[in-house]
Design a protein that fits this description.
Helix content: 40-55%
Number of helices: 15
Structural class: alpha+beta
Shape: rod-shaped
CATH architecture of one domain: 2-Layer Sandwich
CATH topology of one domain: Heat Shock Protein 90
Strand content: 15-25%
Distance between the termini: 66 Å
CATH superfamily of one domain: Histidine kinase-like ATPase, C-terminal domain
CATH class of one domain: Alpha Beta
């Protein structure tokens, strides 16, 4: 008992384990598919976004450094141009000859429209000429004597820092060029207003949110792109140590705001280009991208869910339609064609419709064959009965009667075999002729000529024509062309004017006898062919043989004529 209980528990547990899972709707699988696709896509997008942001920061950093460097190089070219101008002016003959008034005049002409002015001083720093004012007007000592002294000590061009010019009454800078000791002017300087360098900085476009300032060795702003935020002459509150050059980007705090700074230092002037931007602006692309990614991810999830719901509804309706069609097919009812949005389901629907039509056709065929079987069985019984009666009239003894009756029954059987082989597709007329005449044809094939196109006829016509051909062949064998060793048969047919014109002509080598003119064949041809097929049957006697002409309406022989019976047509219309 314990073993049985254990076995029962084991079977119950096995049944529980093998119990199939509850089927889930297609919408659940589609939503799961959306999540399976969307979540990894978002994760990959986050990784790529972070990687892209790092690459973007590197690009912006490289672009910023390149732009700052380009700004500095532009300033250097400006200063280098001023040094070149000084060298050209210093070679003027009027200066070397001490003709300062002439030199002043030529300098004014040469510097017209450049925004630069020429200053000449002696070793003590006293101004000897200044193109800002007319030559000979009183001049004071230069305001930038320290830079002038440094230029003399170094013996090469020297650029000053920013200072407020007394004569110009604005912020200016000097480029000094020392001349030989024996020169009437010890130093020449080109002075230029600091504001003239603003277009130089603005000629290079920094990335959005970035600003730049040109500062001297004291961190004093010479020029900037910030407008009123930092004016010329202000001290820039970042990168405060001019002697320390920090590599790359550096974060600093300005007015409680974290900024990212970068710089470039000039080897000619010692000035620096300092660029900066708010750290939040630099990092904002990542935050904005994350927010956009989240927003778009939510939108995509909602749209994908709606699309999945729509697809699920379409699939559910389609599957429901297939289920209804399958149930109709199972009950033997007609399944009508439907169109579904999913190609595969539409193909299944077409297959169900095709299967339904095949089933309906098969059922009609079965009903037709059953009716035909009963009908033909009755007809054959009547034909056999008629053959038996007609055969008995010309028989002299029982063996002759049996032999004649057996030949006729075999001819009928051959027609029946041919009908069963082809069914409703129709019977080949040439094949029917060959099959019926084969047992009677003489060995000399030249004695028989058969000419006509191959056409298909319906089973009823084939059966009647088969019997007629059999009787004609029997008569030809007993009394006609086949009984005469030199007799010939010409059998031909042609389709014309909606009729099949058939001609059977037997030609004998001797005159035809009176006993060759009557029999069962004549009855078959006139009664069955003429009556059943609506044909015109004519028998014509010649001295050397007999000729049969038969004109059969093609409508009586058309395979479609017997393919669907009238009662079946009514049933089909009701089904539609």
């Amino acid at each position: 008992m314990a073993a049985q209980a254990h076995h029962g528990a084991s079977e119950q547990a096995k049944t529980t384990r093998l119990k199939p899972r509850r089927p889930q709707p297609v919408a659940l699988y589609l939503f799961a598919l959306v999540l399976v696709i969307l979540i990894p896509a978002l994760i990959v997008a986050l990784v790529l976004l972070n990687s892209t942001n790092d690459a973007q920061e590197e690009v912006v950093e490289a672009l910023t450094n390149a732009t700052v460097q380009a700004m500095g190089q532009t300033v250097d070219r400006e200063v280098a141009g001023m040094i070149t101008t000084l060298r050209v002016l210093s070679s003027d003959q009027s200066l070397q000859g001490g003709q300062l008034d002439e030199f002043h005049r030529r300098a004014v002409i040469a510097l017209a429209g450049t925004g630069s002015y020429l200053i000449g001083i002696d070793a003590a720093g006293n101004q000897l000429l200044n193109t800002r004012i007319a030559f000979g007007d009183p001049l004071s000592r230069t305001s930038d004597y320290d830079t002038a002294q440094r230029a003399i000590e170094r013996g090469r061009p020297t650029v000053s820092g920013l200072f407020f010019g007394k004569m110009a009454q604005t912020w200016v800078y000097h480029v000094w060029l020392p001349l030989p000791d024996n020169s009437p002017v010890r130093l020449l300087a080109l002075t230029q207003n600091a504001r003239d360098l603003i277009p130089v900085l603005q000629s290079r476009q920094l990335p959005q949110g970035w600003n730049a300032a040109l500062v001297d060795g004291e961190n004093t702003i010479i020029s900037s792109t910030t407008g009123d935020e930092f004016s010329i002459g202000d001290t820039l509150p970042m990168r405060r140590d001019p002697e320390t050059q920090l590599p790359g980007w550096t974060e600093e705090t300005i007015k409680n705001d974290r900024v990212v700074t970068a710089e470039w230092r000039s080897a000619i002037t010692g000035w620096r280009i300092v660029a900066w931007a708010s750290a939040s602006n630099v990092k904002s692309p990542l935050k904005e991208s994350l927010m956009q990614l989240g927003a778009w991810g939510l939108i995509i999830a909602i749209v994908a869910s709606l699309i999945a719901f729509f697809i699920a509804q379409q699939l559910s309706r389609s599957v429901h339609g297939l289920r209804v069609d399958a149930q109709r097919l199972g009950r033997g009812e007609a399944v009508f064609e439907r169109h579904y949005p999913v190609g595969e389901i539409d193909e299944v629907s077409k297959a169900l419709v095709f299967a339904s039509r095949q089933r309906q056709t098969a059922e009609r065929d079965v009903r037709f064959l059953m009716r035909e079987l009963a009908h033909r069985s009755k007809n054959q019984m009547a034909v056999i009965s008629a053959m038996a009666k007609q055969t008995s009239r010309g028989a002299t003894d029982v063996p002759t009667y049996v032999q004649a009756l057996e030949r006729r029954i075999m001819g009928l059987a051959r027609s029946t075999d041919l009908l069963l082989a082809h069914g409703r597709a129709g019977v080949s007329l040439r094949e029917l002729i060959d099959l019926q005449l084969a047992p009677f044809r003489p060995q000399d094939e030249k004695r028989v000529e058969i000419v006509g196109p191959d056409i298909r006829i319906n089973p009823q016509g084939a059966q009647i024509l088969g019997m007629a051909l059999h009787e004609l062949a029997v008569n030809a064998t007993q009394y006609g062309a086949f009984a005469d060793e030199r007799g010939t048969l010409t059998f031909g047919w042609i389709e014309r004017d909606g009729e099949l014109a058939v001609r059977w002509r037997e030609t004998l080598s001797r005159p035809m006898k009176a006993s060759e003119r009557a029999g069962f064949g004549t009855t078959v041809l006139r009664a069955m062919v003429g009556g059943a097929l609506g044909a015109q049957v004519e028998r014509q006697e010649h001295v050397d043989g007999v000729e049969w002409t038969i004109d059969i309406p093609m409508t009586a022989l058309d395979p479609a004529f017997a393919a669907v019976r009238p009662d079946e047509q009514i049933e089909e219309r009701r089904g539609e």
